[in-house]
Every structure is written in C-alpha cells, then in structure tokens.
Amino acid sequence: MGFLWAIVELFVVFVSIAILVLGSAIVFEAYRRRHNHTHVEAPAIFEDPTSLKEVPCPYIFDPAEKYISLIIPAFNEEHRLPGALDETMNYLQQRAAKDKSFSYEVVIIDDGSADGTKRVAFDFVRKYTVDNVRVILLGRNHGKGEAIRKGMLHSRGELLLMLDADGATKVDDLEKLEKQIHAVARKELHFGHAAASDSSLRISDVPVAAFGSRAHMEEKALATRKWYRNFLMKGFHVVVLLAAGPGIRDTQCGFKMFTRAAARKLFTNIRLKRWCFDVEVVYLCKLFGIPIFEISVNWSEIPGSKVNPLSIPNMLWELALMSVGYRTGMWQICT
Fold first, then answer.
1. How does 105-128 read in b/e, with b if 16+ C-beta sit within 10 Å?
2. Domains, the chain, ranges and CATH?
3. At 40, phi and psi to the nearest 5?
4. Which of the residues in the chain have pLDDT under 70?
5. DSSP 8-state secondary structure symbol assigned to residue 212
6. Do 6 and 226 meet the contact criterion of CB atoms below 8 Å apart?
7. pTM of the model
8. Of 5, 67, 262, 292, which has the fewest CB atoms closer than 10 Å, so is most exposed?
9. Sign (positive/negative) of CA torsion 249, 251, 257, 259?
C-alpha cells in the first residue's frame, strides 16, 4: 500500500504541474470572471460574551493601541487550541507583569469551525477580558490565508504576529523576530530619509517582516521522511522559487511577524485564501521592497495537521493564480 500511495502522490504532482504550465492563463481568466478576487469587506464585530455588547472594531489604518497583536487562525481546533492558548497567555501575562509598558491582544479567527472551537475561544475571552482576547467569526470556512488576512486587518498592535493554533512553534520565540525588527526599524529611523528628530515616528511606521524558519531542521527531516515525501517537498520548493523568486528557504512556517506599516501594505492586497498565501506574502514583500528576515525557531510536529499530499493540486493552482494574476496585471496593487 505504501508503494501504491507513493505512486498516486507522484502522479498527482506531475498532473498538477502539467496543468500549471499548460493551462493556467486560460483557466485563470475563467476563474477571474466567475470569482472576483476583489475583497468585499463585511464589518468585523467583536462581541463581549460577558456583557453581550458589541466592541468597536479597529482597522489596520487606525493608530496602534497595543504593542503586539497575536493572530491565530483556527479551523476545527477544539482539542489543540486550549493548550496553545494557555501557553500563549501565560507567556504574555508574565511578560506584562515584568514590563508595564508591554501591552498585547490575542485575536482568534474562527474559520467556520464545525466543532467546539468557538466555545473554547470565547471561554478565553471570558477569562482574560475582551480587551486582551478577541474572536472574529467568519461564519463559513474561507481558508487559512483569508482568516489571517481578516485578523491582521482588525488588530491593534504595533507588531503583528501570526502563529498556528496547534502551538507547533514556542511562543517565546517571537522575541527573536521582535529583536530583529527592532534593530532594522531603529536603524531605518536613525539613518533613513525621515528626520530622526520627528518624535511622532515609531517602529510600527517602518515596513519590516520577520519570518520564523524551520530550514535549520531540514537535514534531520530529510533523513526521517520517506523518499517520495522528500521528492514532493523539493518539487514544491522549485515551484515556489519560480512563483516568488529566491531568498526565503521556508515560506510555509506559520510564525511570521510584521510591523503595522508592513501589514497595512501586505494584507490589504493579499488575495490567496488558503495554503499558499505565505508565498504571496513573500512576493508582495519583494514588490513593495519590504525587507524580510528569516530567523530559525523551535518547531515540533503536532498531530492533527490539515495539510496532506492531496492538498498539492490546490497549492499549485493557487501559485498559478498568483503568478498569472500579478504578471498580467489582472490583480491590481493598492499602494
């Protein structure tokens, strides 16, 4: 069975690449006509489950009200979300106790879950108050990319961190990304074109992105994975290289931090709704000249992953949409 499954996976990859190369432009136009990728924003509403009152919803163009926002997309995460949130809230509370200037929020985006994810999320809102933990309900499943986009657009932080609901990356690793962003932003504010004497300028005003990376674990992963899974991984990396260009070794790690200025540019333009939105983020960073720093983080495999080999055709399809959409000018950039 293992050998037959390997053959099926390889067949899926080859067929998908053939579709990508031969038919993407034609199919894209039909897709564009049927599914307009212009975002129609429905008002996001935060509800306080204690008072049952609606809480005013911020937008990415509003001034920052918190130091950091943690954006967590969740789809059917009833069982994995509590452990990850407990670890996250413990870290944030301990840091806030040590540093009175440290303010935070956690934004959970329930991406149309059919299990108890909504209940779990609102339990944390009740425990930590709606000022520190907020929930966005998307109603139906849109995809991880759309969930993160929505969370980014309605967060209050100077820094915005996306992280997965499974807790695969240790939350305190955010300090590695934070340190890099601070170093770059301070240098830019001091030596850049902006007047250093302008006290109104903040780190959040400098577009910078820092990506958590598992590339340092690649050698070990290659040794433990089956040969055909390594083949699939390498094949996907080649397609990503063709679509977004070189420079980032691990585009898919779900641990990425952005300054508010960077998030404003990126997430008002993101169109891919599912797995390959990470690649689109890389593409847009390069397009806008936003510096990206890839930083090694601690990562562990958590049971229950929603990515499987049968997702590959959809991922390749999204990369085809992105490549054709931007290169033909069908996807307009908002600056």
1. bbbbbbbbbeeebbebbbbbbeeb
2. 2-327 (3.90.550.10)
3. -105, 110
4. 1-44, 191-201, 216-246, 301-311
5. E
6. yes
7. 0.81
8. 5
9. positive
